Predict the structure of Flavodoxin domain-containing protein.
Amino acid sequence: MGRRMKRILIVYDTKGGSTWEIIGWIRDGAISQGASVDIKSVREVDNLDYDLIVTGSPIYGEQPMGSIINFLTRDDLTNKNIALFVVCFAGVFGLRNFMVRRYLDEMRSICKGHVVSMTSFDAATGPWRKLNREICYDYGREIAGAPVRRPKVVGTA
Ligand SMILES: Cc1cc2nc3c(=O)[nH]c(=O)nc-3n(C[C@H](O)[C@H](O)[C@H](O)COP(=O)(O)O)c2cc1C
């Protein structure tokens, strides 16, 4: 019996375009696993009939964008599977875990849907761009149902 194609919607907002670039890589990864992917700016979302709704926001002034917060409070997200991500600079100076968790917890707490995963990406600029592309592509594969490939982390307490 063949698996039905997983239908994924990616909803985003952006000011500078880096979130848009990241979403392109996520889409490529998901498509490589046979998913179908629609990408909509938060202002153009109409249909919510998808297996998974990935919702991503950059962080400005310690906050996810208001447009994304509004979207997450929509009543018609009830019972929908939602994957949340943020894009931000919080990776520097070891603040990542603490700050990123704060941003994501805020999004989850107001989300009317069923949050199935949360993650973060760095701004896709400078020397990190190439590595970012691989990370985002892998995330795309993962949300489409591919087995997770994580490097083993050694030496952490
Ligand atoms: C004015 C400004 C404020 C920002 N504030 C934060 C912040 O509070 N925390 C953070 O981690 N990143 C912050 N960033 C970094 C952005 O989240 C990052 O550049 C992101 O990639 C922007 O996404 P976009 O290009 O899709 O708009 C800020 C960037 C700018 C330009």
Summary: The longest strand covers residues 52-60. Helices lie at 18-32, 66-72, 96-110, 129-143. The mean pLDDT is 89.
